[in-house]
Amino acid sequence: MPMQLRQATPDERTKCLSLLHDADEDDARTLMTMADPACTTYLAAEGDHLIGAAVLRWDQHEAEIVYIAVAADRRGQGVGKQMIVALMAEARSRGMRAVLVGTANSSIGNIAFYQKCGFRMDHIRRDYFSYLTQPVIEDGIPIRDMIVFRLALD
């Protein structure tokens, strides 16, 4: 059965929360972002099976993928790439010129993934993760900065 990406209803947002916990461990912050009128929550499903979720913030000329996550049992199977393709189509249909996405400086897999999807490094949000209360290490690298990628839609 093919993957289908669609907007989540307000009631379905809580279903997405467990997946998005991988993108941000602070459920209150994630729920607040999903409730923001400038944001849209999407779910990716195969039939009734939730396999991914994303939240995009829409601006006048560009969008930002605030959160994106794929179910652990579906990672490495092309679901994330399919989600990115569908989200880019949605952004184009809304007249966006570009889409941004950020990831931690230590998230080596994510850095490679976004580049494989066509994103280019754009800028660094220095000390973005300073709100973390303890030193967090990923792949042996302290999480400090956010690398922001941009995909031009022109």
Your description of this structure?
This protein has 154 residues and is an alpha+beta fold. It has 2 domains: 1-79, Gcn5-related N-acetyltransferase (GNAT) (Aminopeptidase, 3-Layer(aba) Sandwich), CATH 3.40.630; 97-154, Gcn5-related N-acetyltransferase (GNAT) (Aminopeptidase, 3-Layer(aba) Sandwich). It contains 4 helices and 9 strands. It has helices at 13-20, 27-35, 79-93, 108-116, and strands at residues 4-7, 39-46, 49-58, 62-70, 98-104, 120-125, 137-138, 141-142, 146-152. It has a 7-stranded mixed sheet, sandwiched between helices. Strand 3 (49-58) and strand 4 form a beta hairpin. Helix 1 (13-20) packs across helix 2. The relative contact order is 0.15.
Number of strands: 9
Shape field: globular
Report the oligomer. single chain
Question: What strand order characterises the main sheet?
Answer: 1-2-3-4-5-9-6
What structural class is derived from the secondary structure elements?
alpha+beta
Please tell me the total number of domains.
Answer: 2
Residue windows where pLDDT falls under 50 for at least 5 positions: none
Kindly provide the name of the CATH class of the largest domain. Answer: Alpha Beta
Mean pLDDT comes to 94
What amount of the residues lies in strands? 35-45%
Descriptive key words:
154 residues, alpha+beta, Aminopeptidase, 2 domains, 7-stranded mixed β-sheet, two-stranded antiparallel ribbon, 4 helices
Summarize the structure.
With 154 residues, the protein is of the alpha+beta class. It has four helices and nine strands; from the N terminus they run E-H-H-E-E-E-H-E-H-E-E-E-E. The chain has two domains: 1-79, Aminopeptidase; 97-154, Aminopeptidase, CATH 3.40.630.30.
